[in-house]
Design brief:
Helices cover about 5% and strands about 45% of the residues. The chain has about 350 residues and is mainly beta.
């Protein structure tokens, strides 16, 4: 039997300067000597254990606060529609820092995103599980700055991905758009968001809270498709685009992709092969592995014309009758007779419990 829906599990582990970044957190930051793409520098610090700050374009300090997004692109631009001021610093280098609610420093350090994705930051003693720590600061104003690995300073800069838009397209295997396909975003076994595709096969869900989801796409006459353990929102189109297989697509076991029933129409398609025309007829609408009567003369396998065949790709074999033989040293306590379905045939099952 073939698997009807493929499930892809993706695991990511990022280690930076001995700090393991938490998989499933939409925003990830740590202090490093180099920000390797897609990581971007937010600001520089003179010493990870505590010191001054400078803007990321200066080259006086070797240590950088490097950040990246899970499936979305980050920038360090300020003044855009989707930019957020993380800190203010007193000068371009050798600077003290303050949180954005203070306004005496003139240099903004920012995180920016594209599209509708939003990021928020808080300043507190410890970051929650869905937040990443950018740095620690000695106070809210006129402060020094350090990394987050140890408790250098009491105040942490805790940032996270808030929400954004999930959009994509649904097509069939002929590259045709599917209208009316249903898209469910599921979290902790609960459907959190639902959308339907338009005439172009496109869908869009706004205001999706950042987090880990399963996406399930379904449509009439098609086999449902699922992708699991995805961090959303994401800018990766391969994550949110789907191709659905028609339910009547023949598979190697002679069933349709949308059911577990043998169909004679699948003969010689995608690896399905019936023994002959008789096998094709008697196995039609059976299930793989079921036994069907094969009443046809086959000089090699069934010369008397009274055989059985296993669906859908077996060969004719002589019927074998087995009569139950039970011996008890003591009297029977229970004798139970039932008619059961065994490999697609009604069979008498006798169960005896001996005393």
């Amino acid at each position: 039997m073939v698997i009807k829906i493929g499930i892809v599990l993706i695991f990511l582990l990022v280690v930076l300067l001995g700090l393991s970044l938490v998989n499933g957190v939409g925003l990830q930051c740590a202090v490093a000597t180099d920000c390797i793409a897609p990581k971007i520098p937010v600001l520089k610090i003179s010493n990870p254990a505590g010191g001054h700050a400078e803007i990321p374009s200066n080259n006086d300090y070797a240590h950088k606060v490097c950040c990246e997004g899970s499936g979305f692109v980050l920038g360090n631009s300020c003044g855009t529609a989707n930019s957020l001021t993380i800190l203010k610093i007193s000068s371009a280098t050798n600077a003290h820092v303050q949180i954005p609610s203070f306004t005496t420093y003139g240099n903004d350090m920012c995180l920016s995103t594209s599209g509708s994705l939003s990021i928020s930051c808080d300043y507190k003693p410890a970051c929650s599980s869905d937040e990443t720590c950018l740095a620690s600061i000695s106070a809210n104003n006129n402060a020094q700055i350090a990394d987050c690995i140890t408790d250098h300073y009491p105040q942490k800069i805790c940032c996270k991905c808030d929400s954004g838009t999930v959009s994509g397209n649904v097509k069939n295997t002929d590259n045709e758009n599917i209208e009316g396909a249903r898209i469910d975003l599921i979290q902790d076994s609960i459907i959190k968001y639902t959308a339907f595709t338009n005439t172009l096969g496109d869908y869009q869900i706004d205001g999706v809270s950042c987090g880990t989801y399963d996406i399930i796409v379904s449509a009439d006459s098609y086999v449902s498709s699922a992708k699991v353990d995805l961090f959303l929102p994401t800018a990766d189109p391969d994550t949110s685009n789907f191709i659905l297989v028609p339910g009547t697509t023949c598979e190697a076991d002679c069933t349709y992709a949308g059911d577990n029933i043998v169909h004679k129409e699948c003969n010689n398609i995608n690896g399905c092969t019936f023994y002959d025309a008789t096998a094709m007829e008697v196995c039609n609408f059976a299930q793989p592995g079921w036994i069907r009567d094969y009443n046809n003369i086959d000089p090699v396998n069934c010369p008397d014309g009274d055989c059985a065949i296993e669906c859908a790709e077996g060969i004719p074999e002589r019927k074998v009758g087995v009569k139950a033989s039970i011996t008890c040293k003591k009297e029977n306590i229970i004798k139970l007779t039932k008619i059961i379905n065994y490999k697609g045939k009604l069979t008498k099952l006798i169960v005896i419990t001996c005393g």
